[in-house]
């Protein structure tokens, strides 16, 4: 599904180049559940954003289903992302001027889905995440944990082929966190490929493979 070859990310300054990622090379097979771990500042979130096609300033090769992402313009990358990827951001990235219901409906608007079907899909996901009572609230009326639940629900509503999750349970209490990880495990068993960044050994135990980064370099798995 994913093939990375000598992927690098750096920033230029008067002092020279500061590398965030160095010579990252690995493959992701369809149906895998992978955890990326490493200390703060090791490049985990940066790598996840690149794989999510949200960052275009890097070097190297990135193939997604044999599509050369490194050769695509921003518009093509965005289209590929919207068609295939659900992303759970560490900072939620909910739209403040939209209700919970409207935030969940946004990914559906990218595709030609009838309004009645959109309503049914949003209704199902609200029920699945036990947030029906929050549907008319705005993000600033929710706790951090509730915003996190909405962000995860938005990522999975389209049944994406790939879910990328950056600290997906960071603001949830342990029971909610376990529920989210068990949902990810179920989605993975149904065929969804999942890649998560986490510091949690408990969350990592749900995955089948762990990739470790240190100072931007890939350590042996």
In short:
The chain has 221 residues and is α/β, with parallel strands linked by helices. The protein has 7 helices and 10 strands. The chain is 34% helix and 27% strand.
Q: Judging by the overall fold, what is the CATH architecture?
A: 3-Layer(aba) Sandwich
DSSP strand (E) fraction? 25-35%
Query: Which whole number gives the mean pLDDT?
Result: 94
Strand order of the largest sheet: 6-7-8-3-9-10
Bulk shape: globular
The first-to-last residue Cα distance is 19 Å
| Domain module count | 1
**In sequence order, what are the helices and strands, one letter per element?**
EEEHEEHEHHHEHEHEE
User: Can you identify the CATH superfamily?
Assistant: P-loop containing nucleotide triphosphate hydrolases
| CATH first level | Alpha Beta
**Unreliable runs, pLDDT <50, ≥5 residues?**
none
Q: Looking at CATH, which topology would you report? A: Rossmann fold
Rg calc: 18 Å
Helix proportion of residues, in percent? 25-40%
Largest sheet: 6 strands, mixed
Number of strands: 10
Key descriptive features of the protein:
alpha/beta, 7 helices, single chain, 221 residues, 27% strand, four-stranded antiparallel beta sheet
Q: Could you characterize what this model shows?
A:
It is a single chain. The protein has 7 helices and 10 strands. Strands 6-7-8-3-9-10 form a 6-stranded mixed sheet, sandwiched between helices. A 4-stranded antiparallel sheet has the order 2-1-4-5. It has one domain: P-loop containing nucleotide triphosphate hydrolases (Rossmann fold, 3-Layer(aba) Sandwich), CATH 3.40.50. The chain is of the alpha/beta class. It has helices spanning 44-51, 74-84, 100-109, 115-128, 144-156, 174-189, 201-204; strands spanning 2-13, 16-28, 33-37, 59-64, 67-68, 85-88, 162-166, 193-197, 209-214, 217-218. Helix 3 packs across helix 4 (115-128). The longest helix has 16 residues, at 174-189. The model has no long low-confidence stretch (mean pLDDT 94).
